[in-house]
């Protein structure tokens, strides 16, 4: 089959005019066409499942280790060279139904004699095949990797976020090797091995895209900081991130301020697992990076009727457990829930659009990023939900050079300092008196106008460190964990924000929209209550007025352009989430956009109310609102500036144990490949009154004429000490001398021995229960060849 370049194929697709009409939200200025994100592309698609050995992972104590399988799938277009790369990372989920097979870190699919499954491997990485196949048909190569760390991730404060970053890095280095013809292969299985199929066909020169789900969303957010501080190993290259998307993430990573890439968060409104919508905190922290150029887009989607699990086809259980919620319970007559198929349609429409826009540079998807549209009709739910106009609420913050900030509550570092060691970021009283552009702020008739912060725990299962700002109303339900304004009124009132000092005029004609983000304080009795399941039954509203230097005024109503002022639906969680209000500037007729003096928000219709407000700004270009403008014309390109290291070096992935052979190519045919296992012996295995001691020797010869890693050498010796605890499970001794919880025997904990040729392990036994223990010793060489000794037994008295 003739191969074609990706760029040429996209130009052909554009030339054929394969576009579909959109269903617009109320925020759209005019009809616009974007490509159908669910339509399959012209390229034939292939998929390979890979297994490439096990990565040795050092655990939280810094000494104990476990092994993590390097496996997943690669979905690619068979006729495209130099393909852009997208990576998917799943979250924390069960490894298998049943117990892992002997000597395996994963489950085999096993059935008894009559065909009844007795053990089933849970391949969470396969749950995004529907998105991977679509992207591959448009010329992308998609790696969906396994990231099962549930045996040990909760021992870290960050819930294993950084451990997953190491897994991501290891898999990307594996993909890099395949691209260079040096990747592993499985002899005799041409249809189930990567080998040289991708050699020279991947685009590592431009940025990659990466999507993570749940704890995978936390991991890909962590990976932004991880790769920024990663010291590239010899033979590889630095990974540039073109776009990172966190799907229903937790917020455990130490890198809570994502910056340095285009970044998006998808928040499922009926998430029963991460019910506090922790990803909203990531978005708030990403909007205005400090100490780094702000050259990237930030996007948030709040999606009605979606739960946590159904974006992954393997995760079939409904995580929303309540049966009585009028909107989020699936069995009620008033439910807003999407069917699993409809949820995946909406999810794929948003997430694949993000990847094609920021990884592939397909600007026609910009309207979905900015909120000019929600989704094409083709991606609308087919049989469930409350209608496409109510399905997605979008927030968009453009790069700094393409916007003019007016009301911008200054962000503060997250988390704030521990009160025992430092003071919080000082309170800034000017935020309610001076705009971000230096003009005065005046109010009339408001009962409340203040900056608040909902705040949250400093780290996983940790305390809440106070900020210098008061808590927002109903702060426990406010998911947008960042500085914001509270505005309340019980009479006609107004807030006027001047764009420059002394009321001087400002030219905003180079922008296309006036944007802001708002939410109704749902539990405030001044607001209309709604019924909990009809999203557009009631809404808050206010006037938005531009005034120019001549005194001319033009006004529109905010609710005309958004569903963000409607109360959230569902009664179990009662979310308050800041969402976008996007108003085209050509709406404000009769004023001179080259000489605008102020933006005024007028309250009193309804007569009473209380809202949260943030991020009032001018952004995009005039083409964003121009009738007949091409999709994407309203967003100006900004050259990305990638920040440098800002912390200690990131830990590299651990060595690979028992990797498959390297694919024989012309480049490798003359190279000796070390496939010989090292030798290892135990010299002493004993307990004293206070310690358990294991010592021994190990050696490795490598290739007779080998160079580099092929020259041989012991890399590490591992010692596992454990007691059986149930079927195929055991409790493992760690470096602190205590026993772990029951873990699968083949996915347990090992202690790294000191030394290579002569090695030793010494662990205090004061806390070790008496009984018989099993001791397993393994040594692997620099090529990853593993030698495991027969299990020995040891009595602790």
Structural class given helices, strands, pairing? mainly beta
Shape: elongated
Strand content: 25-35%
Count of DSSP H/I helices: 8
**Number of extended strands:** 40
Tell me the layout of helices and strands.
Layout: E1 4-5, H1 6-15, E2 20-21, E3 33-34, E4 45-58, E5 64-77, E6 80-81, E7 85-89, E8 96-97, E9 110-111, E10 117-121, H2 129-137, E11 141-145, H3 161-179, E12 184-185, E13 208-213, H4 215-228, E14 241-247, E15 262-268, H5 279-286, E16 298-303, H6 340-358, H7 366-370, H8 388-391, E17 392-397, E18 403-407, E19 441-444, E20 448-452, E21 484-489, E22 493-498, E23 513-520, E24 543-548, E25 553-557, E26 579-584, E27 596-603, E28 609-619, E29 656-657, E30 661-662, E31 679-687, E32 691-699, E33 714-724, E34 729-732, E35 743-744, E36 750-752, E37 758-764, E38 771-781, E39 786-788, E40 792-796
Parallel strand pairs: 1-6, 7-11, 7-13, 13-14, 14-15, 15-16
Antiparallel strand pairs: 2-3, 4-5, 4-29, 5-11, 5-36, 8-10, 9-10, 12-30, 16-17, 18-28, 19-22, 20-21, 21-28, 22-27, 23-26, 23-28, 24-25, 24-27, 31-32, 32-37, 33-34, 33-36, 33-38, 34-35, 38-39, 38-40
């Amino acid at each position: 089959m003739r191969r074609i370049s990706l760029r040429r194929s996209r130009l052909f697709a554009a030339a054929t005019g394969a576009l579909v009409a959109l269903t617009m939200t109320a925020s759209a200025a005019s009809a616009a066409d974007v490509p159908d994100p669910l339509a399959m592309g012209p390229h034939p698609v292939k998929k390979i499942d890979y297994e490439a050995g096990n990565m040795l992972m050092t655990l939280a104590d810094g000494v104990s280790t476990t092994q993590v399988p390097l496996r997943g799938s690669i979905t690619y277009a068979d006729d495209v060279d130099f393909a852009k790369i997208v990576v998917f990372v799943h979250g924390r989920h069960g490894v298998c139904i049943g117990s892992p097979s002997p000597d395996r870190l994963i489950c085999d699919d096993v059935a008894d004699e009559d065909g009844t499954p007795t053990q089933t491997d849970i391949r969470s990485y396969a749950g995004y095949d529907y998105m991977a196949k679509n992207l591959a048909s448009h010329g992308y190569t998609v790696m969906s990797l396994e990231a099962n760390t549930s045996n040990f991730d909760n021992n870290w404060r960050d819930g294993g976020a950084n451990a997953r970053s190491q897994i991501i890095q290891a898999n990307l280095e594996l993909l890099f090797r395949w691209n260079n013809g040096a990747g592993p292969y499985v002899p005799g299985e041409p249809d189930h091995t990567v080998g040289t199929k991708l050699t020279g066909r991947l685009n590592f020169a431009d940025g990659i895209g990466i999507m993570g789900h749940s704890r995978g969303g936390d991991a890909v957010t962590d990976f932004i900081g991880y790769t920024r501080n990663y010291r590239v190993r010899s033979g590889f290259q630095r990974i540039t991130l073109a776009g990172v998307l966190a799907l229903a993430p937790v917020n455990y990573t130490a890198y809570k301020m994502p910056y340095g890439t285009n970044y998006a968060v998808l928040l499922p409104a009926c998430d029963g697992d991460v019910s506090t919508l922790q990803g909203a905190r990531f978005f708030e922290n990403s909007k205005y990076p400090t100490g780094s150029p702000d050259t990237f887009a930030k996007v948030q989607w709040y999606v009605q009727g979606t739960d946590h699990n159904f974006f992954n086809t393997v995760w079939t259980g409904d995580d929303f457990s309540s049966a009585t919620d009028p909107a989020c319970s699936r069995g009620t007559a008033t439910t807003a829930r999407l069917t699993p198929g409809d949820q995946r349609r909406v999810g794929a429409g948003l997430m694949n659009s993000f990847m094609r826009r920021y990884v592939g540079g397909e600007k026609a998807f910009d309207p979905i990023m900015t909120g000019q549209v929600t989704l094409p009709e083709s991606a609308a739910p087919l049989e469930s939900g409350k209608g496409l106009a109510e399905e997605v609420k979008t927030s968009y913050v453009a790069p700094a050079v393409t916007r003019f900030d007016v009301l911008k509550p200054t962000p503060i570092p997250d988390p704030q300092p521990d009160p025992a060691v430092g003071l919080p970021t000082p309170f800034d009283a000017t935020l309610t008196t001076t705009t971000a552009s230096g003009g005065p702020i005046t109010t009339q008739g408001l009962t409340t106008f203040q900056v608040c912060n909902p705040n949250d725990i400093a780290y996983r299962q940790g305390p809440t460190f106070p900020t210098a700002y008061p808590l927002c109303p109903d702060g426990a339900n406010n998911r947008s964990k960042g500085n914001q304004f509270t505005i309340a009124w019980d009479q006609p009132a107004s807030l006027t924000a001047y764009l420059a000092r002394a009321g001087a005029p400002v030219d905003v004609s180079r922008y296309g929209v006036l944007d802001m983000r708002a939410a109704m304080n749902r539990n405030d009795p001044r607001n209309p209550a709604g019924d909990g399941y009809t999203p557009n039954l009631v809404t808050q509203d206010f006037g938005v007025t531009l005034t120019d230097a001549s005194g001319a005024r033009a006004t529109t109503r905010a609710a005309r352009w958004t569903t963000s002022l409607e109360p959230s639906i569902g009664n179990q969680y009662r979310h308050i989430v800041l969402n976008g209000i996007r108003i085209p500037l050509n709406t404000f007729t009769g004023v001179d956009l080259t000489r605008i003096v102020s933006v005024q928000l007028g309250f009193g219709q309804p007569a009473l109310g209380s809202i949260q407000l943030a991020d009032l700004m001018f952004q995009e270009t005039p083409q964003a609102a121009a009738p007949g403008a091409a999709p994407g014309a309203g967003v100006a390109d900004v050259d990305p500036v990638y920040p440098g290291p800002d912390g200690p070096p990131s830990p590299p992935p651990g060595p690979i144990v028992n990797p498959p052979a390297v694919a024989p190519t012309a480049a490798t045919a003359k190279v000796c490949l070390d496939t010989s296992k090292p030798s290892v012996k135990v010299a002493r295995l004993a307990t004293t009154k206070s310690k358990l001691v294991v010592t021994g020797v190990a050696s490795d010869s490598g290739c007779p004429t080998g160079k580099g890693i092929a020259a041989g050498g012991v890399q590490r010796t591992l010692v596992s000490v454990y007691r059986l605890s149930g079927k195929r499970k055991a409790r493992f001794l760690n470096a602190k001398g205590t026993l772990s919880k029951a873990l699968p025997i083949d996915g347990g904990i090992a202690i790294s021995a000191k030394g290579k040729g002569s090695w030793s392990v010494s662990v205090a036994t004061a806390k070790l229960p008496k009984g018989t223990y099993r001791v397993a010793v393994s040594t692997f060489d620099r090529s990853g060849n593993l030698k495991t000794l027969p299990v020995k037994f040891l009595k602790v008295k």
